[in-house]
Design brief:
About 40% of the residues lie in helices and about 10% in strands. The protein is α+β, with helices and mostly antiparallel strands. The chain has a domain of about 55 residues.
């Protein structure tokens, strides 16, 4: 995979995990170092997969762009240590 660009590597890695069909997919900065178009593609693919197959995707993003917010069902901003208690946020 060293011959491929960062964006293609991320997309392939996420695709491999989606093929395994996990109920919960945890992603840390899946759009790190991606250009805006590829960020949009990755987030839209994840959102469509979650809705179509009734799956949960939890991800972190340092600086989300406004054009991807329509794909997100719940957004939690964590600015301090106290914000990392996500149990009330995850309760359905």
């Amino acid at each position: 995979m060293k011959l491929y660009s960062t964006c293609l590597y991320f997309r392939v890695t996420i695709g491999v995990q989606l093929v395994r069909d996990p109920v919960v997919l945890l992603l840390d900065e899946p759009t790190w170092d991606l250009d805006p178009l590829n960020t949009y593609f990755v987030i839209s693919i994840l959102a469509n997969h979650a809705k179509k197959y009734n799956r949960i995707v939890l991800l972190t993003m340092e600086k989300p762009r406004s054009d991807i917010f329509p794909f997100l069902d719940r957004v939690r901003s964590c600015d301090s240590k106290d914000d990392w208690n996500l149990l009330p946020f995850l309760a359905f």
